[in-house]
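1st attempt posting a full record on here, be nice pls
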Amino acid sequence: LSGNDFAIDDIFFSEVCEATATVNVTLVEVDPTWFPVENLCVGSPAFPLNTMLAPWATPGGTWTINGIPSTTFNPAALGPGSHQVRYTVGTAPCIEMLTQFIVVFPFPNANWNPPINLCPTSPSFNLNTLLAPGAEPNGTWRINGVNAMFFNPALLGPGTYTVSYTVGVFPCTNIQTHPITISPLPGVCGWIRQR
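the predicted structure (as tokens):
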């Protein structure tokens, strides 16, 4: 009802400045897939751990065996048992890992006990009867390097013979060798199996 009147004419709004920001987004995908080697025993050769990586796996990661950094799996050094193997690849925060177990088997048991006090009149016997308790069956017997299944004192005659028993499949094989003597002397004959 009273006072002064004010007016503003010709108001104009415009951008003061223009700014553009460009952001590059890199998607990182890492794959730690690897396949454990099977049928290993303490006689199996050592091998690089990277040979177990899947063709599509991301290379350049790190390996641990039972928590210890390693680049090689050596069954002889690790010994029989189940060993935890882990492959870790990537950089934070994009880190992936895969943990699996590799079993190392002991050498098969090839223990056997040679008989004593044999002579040419002692009966022939199957060599498998000499196997010790717990020994692996279905192995190969050799007498002086020749495959055999029976020990026949009458056929072999007096003397000392090298008898070996081999069991398993290379490189997981075990062999045990003993001499067996056939005595020509009378009075000491008779098959006595050692325990």
